[in-house]
Amino acid sequence: MTVDTAPLTARIDRRRLRDYRRLLPSAVRPRLAGILARVVVLIVFPLALLAMWMVIIDGTFFANGDWALIAILFPLAIPPVIGVVLLVQAIRRRSGVRPYRLNGFAIANGFTYQPYSPAPPLPGMIFTRPGQSSAFVTDILRRREGYALEIGNHTCTTGSGRSTTTYRWGYAAMRLPVALPHIVLDAHGNNTIGRPRLPIAFAKNQRLSLEGDFDRYFTLYCPEGYERDALYLFSPDTMAVFVDEAARLDVELVDDYLFLYFPGQLATLDSAMWERLLATVDALSERLLRWERWRDDRRQRSTDVSGGILMGPGSVLGVARQGRRLSVKEDWWWVLGAALAVFGFANLVHDLITGWFS
Predict the structure, then answer these.
(1) Which of 135, 152, 265, 315 is the most exposed place for a label (fewest CB within 10 A)?
(2) Residue 115 near residue 99 (C-beta atoms within 8 A)
(3) What pLDDT digit, counting tens, does each position of 171-185 carry?
């Protein structure tokens, strides 16, 4: 596929940009009043407090070298710096340049563009991460012709209060012609200090080692009992495609979707990234036709179509229950902590009773 990246860098018609950004939702183009309110709090209030201190101490502490007082007042400079950074970011978002360019890129390459959407009900692990308190997707590009393809940037928040954590993933979702077992490829190329960056930890007994040097680039997880199916799906030539084209992308096969994940953004204004991503998608799309022939022999040959699609007399297309989802790694630390707490409390009660009656 030839990728037209000119709209990502071409000179912008300011009149068309002005007309386009008027159509952007407030989630993408924040209101000016809301921006100024935050800036006033972060910039004006600390500066006013600092000015008050200067009046009280008559500005003489600089001359006297009272660096301890300077160290106390130094944190007051941090909020204004943060406010300036947020103001610059908000002004760039209000300009509408990014969505305008991505919209032009989408039109030039047969996609539709949506700047913002609530998180879609997709079965991928970044969309179903446990404990999500909020989630949304930005810069969504979709293509329906040929094989269905969706590319976007997913943001989710877990926890609340001070324990809030935000995760950002770029993703590409390809619709498969047939439902496949739940298989995950953890790319070593985007891990941190050897630790997986996957949003979900899978049980280690589901790891499958493949031939050649594939294990240098990916760790493959498949449901127990589906090892032969994984070997069929990831034939040597298929493994070569993943190593050559997707070595820095985590991969997930779940239901009738193939997901590519990147810890950051995939829908960007980077022309080179788009060329690499769409070349990867095109290379992987050739595997889809081969995977269409896969069948799960564990499903009973029946005309009952529950959980599958009837393909003909006595044939059902789908995945048996045990192959639909990988087992998640159990976290036993909280169990150990609770056991130690109970043990300590029991000893405390025992000591109190013993001391009372001794």
Answers:
(1) 315
(2) yes
(3) 999 999 899 999 999
Q: Are 19 and 133 part of one and the same domain?
A: no
Specify the number of domains making up the chain: 2
* pTM of this structure: 0.77
Structure-block tokens of residue 2: 């030839």
Range of the domain at 26: 6-102
End position of a domain, from candidates 102, 134, 151: 102
53 and 119, same domain (yes or no) = no
Dist. CA 2–CA 110, nearest whole Å: 11
Q: For 125-162, how does the pLDDT look when each residue is reduced to its tens digit (9 = 90+)?
A: 999 998 888 999 999 999 987 779 999 999 999 987 77
- The structure tokens 């200067």 sit at 54
Residue 73: pLDDT over 80 = no
pLDDT digits 0-9 by tens, 6-46 = 999 999 999 999 999 888 887 787 666 666 666 666 677 77
CB 109 within 8 A of CB 3: yes
Q: Residue 28's pLDDT is what? A: 80
Q: Which of 189, 191, 177 has its CA nearest to residue 286?
A: 177
pLDDT at 313: 36
What tokens were used for 168?
Answer: 């950002």
Q: Are residues 57 and 125 in the same domain?
A: no
